[in-house]
Amino acid sequence: MDDEFFMRQALVQAQRAFDEDEVPVGAVVVLGGKIISRGYNQVERLNDCTAHAEIIALTSAFSYLGSKYLPEATLYVTVEPCLMCAGALYWSKIGRIVFGTTDEKNGHHRVTGPNSPFHPKTVVEYGVLAEDSRALMKSFFARKRG
Length: 146
Known about the structure:
Blueprint: H1 3-19, E1 26-31, E2 34-40, H2 43-46, H3 53-65, E3 74-79, H4 83-92, E4 96-101, E5 123-126, H5 130-145
Parallel strand pairs: 3-4, 4-5
Antiparallel strand pairs: 1-2, 1-3
């Protein structure tokens, strides 16, 4: 199992969001080669602006492990985390973040470098199945505008 395998699992979660008329972002947390939690956007369903895929996946992972930190875990998320999610990821001390496509409007990139919102030990990588993630987002917003 590799980054593409786990990103495909995050895309399954994003499709669930899409099918429920939520912004299609999905996430999985992996530890030791095993998915320990999953999440997808549920902002509309829960009437909660914080119910992002990353937050739901993190909360589930904390509960599963009985821990508030994830230094050995990897989060796979289909779209670049927003600043709120980046803050939660910072406090989780997650070891690695892999995201699919960038988010020019709301992504964390606005504060990269020395002002990065992620923990200094967190490795951040992106571009894994980026086109698949981007296509799902474009399809969702095209449907909304149509």
